[in-house]
Amino acid sequence: MASNRDKIHNLDDSDVDELDVDEAWNDWNADEKDENGDDDSEFKCLFCNINFTSSDSMIQHCDSTHRFDFPNLKKSLGLDFYGCFKLVNYVRAMVAQNSCWSCGHQCKSNQELLNHLHQTNVSQELKLLWDDDRYLQPFMEGDSLLYSFDQDEDFEEDDCMQSVDEEELSRIVREAKEVSRILGDVEKICSDDEVMVDADASSPTDSNREVTKVMPSTSIGSSSREAVVNGVDAGCDLSDAMKKNLSLRASFGRVAASDIKKVNESYFGSYSSFGIHREMLNDKVRMDSYSQAILKNPSLLGGAAVMDVGCGTGILSLFAAQAGASRVIAVDASEKMVAVASQIAKENGFLRNASTCKGSKQSSDVVEVVHGMIEDIEKSISIEPHTIDVLLSEWMGYCLLYESMLSSVLFARDRWLKPGGAILPDTATMFAAGFGRGCTSLPFWENVYGIDMSSVGKELVKDAAEHPIVDFVDSNDIVTETASLKNFDLATMKIEDMDFTSSIELQPKSASVAESSDKKHGLTWCHGVVLWFDTGFTSRFCKEMPANLSTSPYTPKTHWAQTIFTFREPISLSSGRLDAKSSGVVGTDSCPASKIEVRISIARAPQHRAIDISMETSAISHDCRRQAWPVQIFNLS
Questions:
Q1: Roughly what angle, to the nearest 10 degrees, separates helices 166-193 and 257-270?
Q2: What angle do CA 357, 286, 367 make, to 5 degrees?
Q3: C-alpha dihedral, 322 to 328 to 329 to 334, nearest 10°
Q4: Where does the signal sequence lie (predicted)?
Q5: Residue 619 clears pLDDT 60, i.e. is over it
Q6: Which end of the chain has the least Cβ crowding within 10 Å, N or C?
Q7: Is 403 a catalytic residue?
């Protein structure tokens, strides 16, 4: 549900918002300190209820009393920062079930478990017990032990690991602890302000489409191979942890209630603009896909109870009514658009309780237009749980997940959709490919009415390496094969699946356009990665006429365009083995890469309704040598 790119704002406005957030958070911290007095941390034993004033004393107690030798486990298994993080959460989860962490034996009580605990033979297979991303979620709120690991100095490092900037890492961890403390008060604040804070219950998002610089405190980071954030060394494997609610800011998906309320009001107010709706209604790819899925599948819609989440003008709801739905609940949080949608439904003879049907042969009294966020509509209308046959929504934003509206759709699915009910669309897939020089601003600035202004182009490319760009990409400028980044099944996915890390390989095309290639030497230069998405109305639900909505650069343009992430420096590629210098740097003209490995993490950002993206890039030579670049952090807000 993306809006006009002309709405993209400058950084100055977002800077003010960031300052407001920081001030609000500082106020909450001050209040908490006043209430709690002493700010010293307590370290709760992993197995019993004893608290300690230091992590060292707690760890020694676990070893001597409960036969849990944490330092030996860490050293023998080569656990990094987040390996330790997972282990702690795994152990706490097992103890909460009165289960032995090493052998899985189920005890009847905690005391029986304490008596059962035994020495464990350390082997690499042991790591499989907690090798699950769910253990990146803190099991115990405010667990001080999780934030003590930054004081350790003996974590294993990969060969390519650079030295840790202790000051930077400590700053990030302090922020994590600050946010964790704040979250303890968020529910109370939300209750006072009558604002829902949990990102799991968020609704359609800000259409102002700002593309701003990443916040100083980043929320996703680098892999264990290269721990450098935007050129600054930041320690161990940040990307996995920060994306998985590692109590670092993006992962929580929560911010100050007052700021969420402000963002929501701005967002829903912006969707009162008819210009935005005209742009979406004028998107032929969008409209054809939805109309085909709704109008060409009578067995799905005939007699069905339908819910339209974020209905806007209500056109999709009217499609459902035309398709024979018995009831359509159209929900929108913009008061103005609810009035507009109601009027349109009335004029077309579908509004529930409408006095006239204008001679239409279609069934009347079908569409109910409800004002409110989807999480709150039960205050306005009574809907029995699990009574909806078809859940309908156009929730997609730039880079698919920008806007965070998907969480509202999943909320509606879990609350009202019947078991086995249909959700439209029911799949979404993100794709990635490498782009060439023609997709940058370099060609334009090299010849401006005969004047060489390439220095300006280089400066813009440098800036683009820090900011995502939403724009149309010419398919001729794609220089690699397309890779599938992430698949979502809307019928089964969970809200936390919106935060993910995925690794892909970009293989050079057999033939690239001349503008991105050096024909003489057979090289192709890749300047970055472009992302797009498809959403599917598959035969699982649309049995008569499946449909697909694609925002690919290879298909007709949509208002979503594509999202561009620029490398700091281009990488040379060659599909065939060249006479490269074995000592040359991989990815340069003297030693072109055979492929590019990219690891991308996407997580809901601290700014409500925004997303953070990290990109880690490595070039692989034909003789399997590797050149890695520092992780790049982008913020789409």
A1: 70
A2: 25
A3: 0
A4: none
A5: yes
A6: N
A7: yes
Mean pLDDT for the chain? Answer: 78
Question: Position of tokens 């006095």?
Answer: 355
**Mean pLDDT over residues 49-68, rounded?**
90
Residue 616 Cα distances to 402, 471, 501, 509, 600, angstroms: 20, 22, 11, 21, 6
Reading the block at residue 275, the tokens are: 């210009």
Average pLDDT over residues 500-514: 81
Please tell me which residue in 226, 403, 496, 616 is annotated as part of the active site. Answer: 403
The bridge status of strand 562-573 relative to strand 523-537 is antiparallel
Helix axes 11-36, 166-193, angle to 10 degrees: 80
Which residues lie closer than 8 Å to 205 by C-beta, 6 or more apart?
263, 267, 397, 402, 403, 404, 405, 608, 609
DSSP 10: P
Digit-coded pLDDT (tens) for 515-530: 455 544 578 999 999 9
Residue position matching structure tokens 């209604």: 281
Nearest to 373 by CA among 499, 265, 270, 274: 265
Please list, in sequence order, all residues whose beta carbon lies within 8 angstroms of the beta carbon of residue 608, skipping any fewer than 6 positions away: 199, 202, 205, 255, 259, 260, 263, 264, 404
Per DSSP, 457 falls in state H
Sheet of 367-371: strand order equals 367-371, 327-332, 305-309, 388-393, 417-424
For residue 148, how many other CB atoms are within 10 A of its CB? 19
Task: Give the separation between CA 602 and CA 498, rounded to whole angstroms.
Answer: 8
Cβ proximity of 473 and 530 under 8 Å: yes
Is there a contact between 237 and 223 (Cβ–Cβ < 8 Å)?
Answer: yes
Question: Does position 217 have pLDDT exceeding 60, yes or no?
Answer: no
pLDDT for residue 123:
80
Where do we find the tokens 């109008």?
A: 295
Confidence of residue 275 (pLDDT cuts 50, 70, 90): confident
Cα 27 to chain centroid, rounded: 28
pLDDT of residue 80: 82
Q: Is 183 left (phi over 0), alpha (psi -120 to 50) or beta?
A: alpha
Least confident interval from 86-95, 315-324, 434-443, 508-517: 508-517
Q: What is the distance between the alpha carbons of residues 253 and 200, in angstroms, rounded to a whole number?
A: 8
Hunting for tokens 């202004």 — which residue is that? 453
Return the minimum-mean-pLDDT range out of 206-220, 469-483, 569-583.
206-220
DSSP string, 385-449: TT-EEEEEE---BTTBTTT-THHHHHHHHHHHEEEEEEEES-EEEEEEEEE-GGGSSHHHHH-BT
